[in-house]
Amino acid sequence: MTRVRLFIILAAVALGPRPAFPTAPPAGQVAWLKYDEALATARRRGLPLLIFFRQDNCRPCEVLSEQGFDRPDIAGYVNQRLAPARVDLDREPELKKKFRVAGAPTVWFLAPDGKEIDFFTGYVPADRLLLILRYVGDGAYRTMTFEEFERREAKTATDQEGK
Predict the structure, then answer these.
(1) Is the pTM of this model over 0.85?
(2) Sign of the torsion formed by the C-alpha atoms of 147, 153, 154 and 159
(3) Domains and CATH numbers, the chain
């Protein structure tokens, strides 16, 4: 009888509910979610949603990942200020169609309520990627254009260099 109870307890633990990420990603890596999970996280936490559309054997996708999203400061920012989803275009054609993705890589941003903010296609250098992420993650998209945000950030950097 004791063995049966032990088996039932172990089975219940093994088959019980699992968090989206059982363990945190290693430092310097984005905690990518599936699209539906990221959308739910965005709504629950009031965060913008980042959707990274990629494909296997896509060199620009690999470079954007390696030189951009895998950079520790960028990964940390994404994990803290955005709900990140990674979508494989070959495996999720319905999302490709929904977001009108013409090529990879494509990165879409949605407001916490699911409304489209903006997107970009192709490789973006890491420093510019971080600027784009901050524009969305800091909520500046609500009050100014990206060009205005970019000018403001350049002026702030210049002012700080002069001090």
Answers:
(1) no
(2) positive
(3) 24-158 (3.40.30.10)
